[in-house]
Amino acid sequence: MLRKxxxxxxxxxxxxxxxxxxxxxxxxxxxxxxxxxxADLAYNYWWSWTEERVSLFSxxxxxxxxxxxxxxxxxLEAVPDERLWQxxxxxxxxxxxxxxxxxxxxxxxxxxxxxxxxxxxxSPDRPVAYxxxxxxxxxxxPVYAGGLGVLAGDSLKSASDLGVPMVGVGxxxxxxxxxxxxxxxGWQEEHYTHCEVNHxxxxxxxxxxxxxxxxxxxxxxxPVRVQVWRVLVGRSQLYLLDTDRSDNDxxxxxxxxxxxxxxxxxxxxxxxxxxxxGVRMLHxxxxxxxxxxxxxxxxxxxxxxxxxREMRYSGVGFEEMAHQVRQQSVFTTHSPxxxxxxxxxxxxxxxxxxGYWPQLGLSREDFxxxxxxxxxxxxxxxxxxxxxxxxxxxxxxxxHRHGELCREMWxxxxxxxSPVPIGSITNGVHARTWTAPLMMDLYRQHLGPDWAAKxxxxxxxxxxxxxxxxxxxxxxxxxxxxxxxxxxxxxxxxRHQRGEAADEIAAVDHLLDPAVLTIxxxxxxxPYKRGxxxxxxxxxxxxxxxxxxxxxxxxxxxxxNPADDEGKRIIQRLMEWCRHPALRDRVxxxxxxxxxxAKLLVSGVDLWLTHPRRPEACGTSGQKVCLNGGxxxxxxxxxxxxxxxxxxxxxxxxGWVIGRPNPDSDPDSQxxxxxxxxxxxxxxxxxxxxxxxxxxxxxxSYRTGLPHQWIAMMKASIRSCAPRYSSDRMVAEYLTxxxxxxLHPQP
Length: 747
Ligand SMILES: *Cc1c(COP(=O)(O)O)cnc(C)c1O
Prior knowledge:
The protein is an alpha/beta fold.
């Protein structure tokens, strides 16, 4: 399906040459000569994957590093010249810079032969185009909200590491996702900050005449001009579409101002920019994807646009074209329920796309039927998931259980006789992003210097058994202390900002204790995640947390959707417990959960709690916890249903399971049963293991000695989860099962 670019969609010249990064050149001109290599590093998110790379920037000016939001471009622009010249004369710093610059060059040039053998259809000119409404690469690029975006970011990073040619396609949100602030009554308020596009590590894509490459998409019967920013992610690229141009109507300029902030009209406009605009943009840049991968359904219009473009040349009808599109399309669904949120009314679809379906040779009914679950029902909502399933040759859920669930849920879309063609590929996380430097260092020592290149290899991780208990415990304890210090800083600042009394602010000095078993809970607050399960019975919770000899403490973090008052009420109640006299030193809430908070939280806790209402699609934060030696305690659902390993018969357990599903229970009694199970686990199973030490301090104090049994569980958890729940394993599975031509039929 190789075609020349179609000039009618391309406003400026389509002759695109991958010009050198002019922004990087500008930055180089500012830097002292010995430091120019910093500019290339700053403009490629490869720098964010390990601490030694990050520290190259943070060491320049630790205070400005914080105020710049960990953005290296903004930092290099802000650091005073005297400081830059000082560093330019520091032989130690220059040595580190030279070494990293060399490593970066080797990385960029090296291409692994594996992927091209497995999927000869892929090449840098014919990559996988990975469409997603959000991308979470790093806290400095605010175009993500949560798990979906972080998964997309981790996928781009692993694709780069493995040499799988991949380009991401997403939207640039000028106001990003909201910042969370809790007011004095504990109610969530949302703040947006304008993102300074010219100081972010990305570049506006220009043609050979220096003009921004733009494409057009009709929205509300009006042409909207879209420009595009390129973000480098190792060897992968991410293209972010942007309508905020002065030649657009002011309403159209704001189409993508907020991520998930809009009404249905805005959401639909965003879907059109992402899908239709994304395909036109790739074409304008002369990128001919071999595979279109939709990560969640927001980009589903892309597949219509691929068909549309081809039909203009080939003259074949939509049906036949759709058949061809299916040879190239992959859809990953994330929703655990069929009444998905990503639906639009037929009227809205008509008002936005009424001019589009004739171009596909389709009638109104035929077009609406593509997104209707029951094609005979003209009033049904238009579902992006249904559209994506109908036009994708391969589809998958994000864990084994979720795959099963999807096959049941969507059976009606397929003919009764054949098996439902939805597989499953369980999500994983990018270990080099999510493992704390102290732990990486331990892995380097005991698994070998090239451990990071073999993450998905289970035999590598057997080496975890060689780590001496005291070393593992000491590193873990340091990470926990760091998390507690950070939590206190954040809580102190928040109380200050709310104008709380001086004694409330001083009380933060006693908040959390590094010797106490520390639980983490970081995720979206919505009723179905059941964030307050631990407090179902307040007396019981107090008894457990404030226990004299075996105390526990918990750190919460997470946002509620702006429109979700129920979720905000949950946060409000948690804030009350943070102030409760019996709990005030044992319960903390970190505001404004993002990737930076997540990194500290998953690396510093002893225990991670996961207990959403069943079913859960996958969940990934517990996987990040494993890499850092924390243990999971969760419902047997999503990834944990695959990963949990009970103890016995010579095998050490790798965590705990909360409750069991009871199909006959209503939600309230299921909550009750799960809470009972959680209490029982914490009191009778988890605390005893954690506080059993090989040497006791004075009067049986819990502050000394090593908990060998707990450490054995930490090792079992790392060994069993690290290789399997990595995004390297995940991307390799996409490569063989979804991207490669059908030599490898789906199971
Ligand atoms: C990993 C991550 C998530 C996803 O967590 P789940 O366990 O899938 O809910 C959400 N937000 C941030 C900031 C993350 O880092």
